[in-house]
Amino acid sequence: AGHDPSLSVTVELSNEIWNSVFPVNGWMDAEAGRKGISFREEVASQIQLLFDVAEDVFAGPDAHRLRKYGGGFAADPTYLAGVLARLRPGTHVDAVGPAAYLGPRRADIDAWLTGATSSSCPNCPTPDDLIATADRTVDILRPQLARHADIARAWRNADGSHPRLELYEAGLNLKSIGRPWAAAAR
Question: Under DSSP, is residue 97 helix (H, G, I), strand (E, B) or coil?
């Protein structure tokens, strides 16, 4: 199926480069330091390299099959704007956007764990509490996604088009793995 000319391929450099949990973040940070440039400059240079190689591979009659994606950070739309600003002028970007997860925030988790022990969790949420927490996240994400949409509209490709706003991941994340509310989350 990968050779089917009706299919397209979307390339994105890594996942959540901004996230210090992932090794790519440490590598990018170390490379930026080694080169004496900013983190976002290093990220943009690596994205540019990927996009250039992908354009060479998907050249000629296959050029229309290539989609180039720029991943953002929902909590900090300036991250995506800063990376895009450091791409080479004329770089075509087909889509941009962050991940959008619904679930508890740090303050919720801290409150739930207050007074918790290995055998008791007096403040742990019920299934309904978990859904309500996730539902409240919509109001937090709405302006962040709107700012990402503004960034997509502000980027102009050489052909006059703008990248689409697309979420690269989304869903419910109740942050319950290894937590006392895991049963409620299930």
Answer: strand
Between the alpha carbon of residue 117 and those of residues 28, 61, 100, 146, 176, the distances in Å are 39, 62, 31, 40, 16
pLDDT single digits (tens) 129-146? 999 999 999 999 999 999
Q: Which two tokens stand for residue 180?
A: 């006392």
Beta-strand ranges (E) seen in the chain are 9-11, 66-71, 95-97, 100-102, 164-165, 170-172
Q: What is the pLDDT of residue 1?
A: 59
Distance of CA 82 to the CA centre of its chain: 14
pTM: 0.87
Please answer whether residues 98 and 167 qualify as being in contact, where contact means their C-beta atoms are separated by less than 8 angstroms: yes
3-state secondary structure labels for all residues of 30-80? HHHHHHCCCHHHHHHHHHHHHHHHHHHHCCHHHHHHEEEEEECCCCCHHHH
> Other CB atoms closer than 10 Å to residue 174's CB: what's the count?
21
* Through-space distance between the first and last CA atoms of the chain, rounded to whole angstroms: 36
